[in-house]
Amino acid sequence: MSDVASRLTELREQLPEGIQLVAVSKFQPVELIREAYEAGQRLFGESRVQELLQKIPLMPEDIKWHFIGHLQTNKVRQLVGNVALIESIDSERLLEVVNTESLKKGVVSNVLMQVHVAKEETKFGFSPEELLSFFRDGRHEGLGNIRICGLMAMASNTDDMKRVRDDFAEAASLFRTVKESVSGLDDFEILSMGMSGDWPIAVEEGANLVRVGSRIFGERHY
Ligand SMILES: *Cc1c(COP(=O)(O)O)cnc(C)c1O
């Protein structure tokens, strides 16, 4: 078995049932992605539009690609229709552009709203307050070519696992609040959180999709 295949197998054995695994293949060569594919992996995550569009035609068609990086509005047109899920909707303007471009292409785009819970300035996303008022004001309604499938969050980039857990707990609580109190969100099911270093904590706090890169593919070469 290749290194990628054995690390993937080991990870799958540790993941509780019902948790989706996105193999984050950004900056990784297609040879390694293919090893993961051969080991049965079908969900992959990429963070740059250009890189993703180069990889798609080189890989089998039954792969489901998730876009997980910061998405610039001028790249939306190229991305829409090419991915199963955009996990990183970090502004209302971006959501509107995705809706418009999806309408033009005649597709419905599945998206997650990225929520900023980390105690850091640098992370993109809606604050919990912004997200709640967005939904409470019904601003998600009328976006006919968007399907909002849940939330994506990243924890603070720190070794303080207590803080990481608090961040995930906050995102999970927000997820439940939205799911229980907002009408018209029939597909709101996914809570995407947890990466190589913190996925077990994310799962304990309620994640049902984890995004793991270096733990499967090894270090990235930027
Ligand atoms: C790179 C990345 C990951 C994976 O990170 P690893 O630490 O390599 O597992 C997960 N989510 C997002 C949004 C990323 O950009």
Q: How would you describe what is shown here?
A:
- With 222 residues, the chain is α/β, with parallel strands linked by helices.
- 39% of the residues lie in helices and 19% in strands.
- It has nine helices and eight strands.
- The protein has helices at 3-14, 30-38, 49-55, 76-79, 92-105, 128-136, 161-181, 199-204, 214-217; strands at residues 20-24, 43-46, 64-67, 85-89, 109-116, 146-154, 190-192, 209-212.
- The protein has an eight-stranded parallel β-sheet with strand order 7-6-5-4-3-2-1-8.
- Helix 5 links the parallel strand 4 (85-89) and strand 5.
- The chain is globular and about 50 Å long.
- The two termini are 26 Å apart.
- The mean pLDDT is 96.
- Residues 24, 26, 47, 68-69, 154, 195-197, 211-215 line the site of pyridoxal-5'-phosphate.
- Residues 24, 26, 47, 68-69, 154, 195-197, 211-215 line the site of pyridoxal-5'-phosphate (PLP).
